[in-house]
Amino acid sequence: MDGTARGRETSGGQRYAQIADHGLIGDLRSVALVATDGTIDWYCCPDFDAPSVFAAILDAERGGSFELTAAVPARTKQFYFPDTNVLITRFFTEDGVGEVQDFMPVTGEPAEEGRHRLIRRVLCVRGALPFRMRAAPRFEYGTRPHTLRVAGDLAVFESETLSLALTSTAPLEADGSDARADFKLAEGETAVFSLDRVGGEVAPRHCAHREAEEQFGATVRYWRRWLSSSRYRGRWREMVHRSALTLKLLTYAPTGAIVAAPTTSLPEELGGERNWDYRYVWVRDAAFCVYALLRLGFSEEAKAFMGFVSRHISPGADHPSGPLQIMYGIDGRTDLSERALGHLEGYRGSAPVRVGNAAADQLQLDIYGALIDSIYLYDKWAEPVSSEQWDHVCALVDWVCAHWDQPDEGIWETRGGRRKFLYSRLMCWVAIERGIRMAHRRGLPADLPHWQACRDTVYRRIMSHGWSDGRRAFVQHEDGDVLDAAVLMMPLTKFIAPTDPKWLSTLDSLTEDLVSDSLVYRYDPQASPDGLRGDKGTFSICSFWYVEALTRAGRLDEASLAFEKMLTYANHLGLYAEEIGHTGEQRGNFPQAFTHLSLISAAFNLDRALG
Fold first, then answer.
1. What is the pLDDT of residue 323?
2. What is the DSSP string of 16-59?
3. Number of helical H runs and strand E runs in the chain
4. pLDDT of residue 533
5. Global pTM?
6. Crossing angle, helix 556-567 and helix 593-610, to 10 degrees?
7. What is the CA 541 to chain-centroid distance, rounded?
8. Cβ(563)–Cβ(603) below 8 Å
9. Is the peptide bond between 591 and the residue preceding it cis, with omega within 30 degrees of 0?
10. Would you state the torsion angle of the CA atoms of residues 213, 214, 217, 219, taken in this order, to the nearest 10 degrees?
11. Which of 97, 76, 95 is nearest to 87 (CA)?
């Protein structure tokens, strides 16, 4: 795919690229967002959840950016080097064509891992083109001052907590606390800019043309070697593989963590308050990622995440949320205190900008089903779980058996009070049922009579209290009548047959009330207040769940059309945020693991059903 830039929207005198007008690069420790005009306006160093260095996407004036663009009017297009996460932005002008190749080398060398190198290579491919570069870091979300030293082709930005070195094959000059370069390239000429984290044992090191070429080749080989493990050969291979490559970029190699998204506070509604920090490990999201990657044949990420979980489950601990928190830091930390950064205006004026996430303290019972289901699939498709891991599973299932009947905040993390959500009950049933399956399949020890009795009790409770005779549908919470797209998971988890009359009636009700041209709303906040002001867009994971539910119900024409429509809402690179707004714009943090993993699952199952 390619994409033509639509320019930057102005807000309060500042210019912002659309959320969708970005590509993603990364090194399995952090990522950078590169806009279609060649500007990096989001980058945290050295890790996903470290304070930002470039955050112009959250405040065009104070956030900081790394601009590298044609110095004359240009049309731009952006695409990925095939089967990789190397991003190319092309500039088409009256005098020639140029391009910027952006990538972050994935290195296995311990001496280089602390460098966190970001390489920007500029080429003139036709004619001659003037370019300009401005590196304007703003450390610690724009709160920490820095000094700048420039010597020829080296610039060093030093703050109290982090130092970065910019090396260049073009002369650099200081412009206040920023570094800039103006240069012209003729056809076939290149320039290289390399940004490194320095300090301690990592000294500034130039990235000459030859080294840039070698690291470009090594990065391309890394991504293609990784992608070659995919077993998917279906109809939507390009989109599925782009989603897989995106999920891989959201993994944190040192611990096996998988973040929900690499950004914070990109708004679900312009000017609204639904702005959250997603740079953490949601147990649910990561477990679903494991399922999607295992489906395609990638088992190493599943193994690494299982290791992360094993290190951070606390079966004997008396936490309010049980043996697991709903989310963790990428290093496994549990304190994710939420605060607002009042000095940043937010994307196009959408404050507050939040760091941390107060939902970490919520009770969300569904995470136990998501996690145990992923462990069950890992045991089935990858490698048998260890005796210690089985002990952890038993402790989790025992806890679910004792606590499944509590009200909780639910999958959508409402801040309007706890309820007895159907989806939470459903996933408690999944937790117990998958535990029973594993015990039977492997002959593992478990209190099966107790587990089976609890599983059957949960099943009967859902069927009796989760069904509304008035709506002729399964509903959001017990003894209510509000519809919720989360119930689309009922046939996907094999709780109910996809052609059961009660389910087909539910599917029709959801289609009538929550579906708009294949796009699916989570629920109606007017009918089910969630404690927050503002409007919601359609939630893309629900739209792909809807495709899968139609598929399993045998409604393949509807499923195919809904899926193809959803693909039209992707950005020019095949990336999705969390939500789709009323005019088709991407909303929320970007890109979103939830959306991409559900695309993979829907594509896999629809392709198989079509034959």
1. 86
2. EE-TTSEEEEE-SS-EEEEETTSEEEEEESSSTTSPEEE-TTT-
3. 15, 30
4. 46
5. 0.96
6. 140
7. 12
8. yes
9. yes
10. -110
11. 76
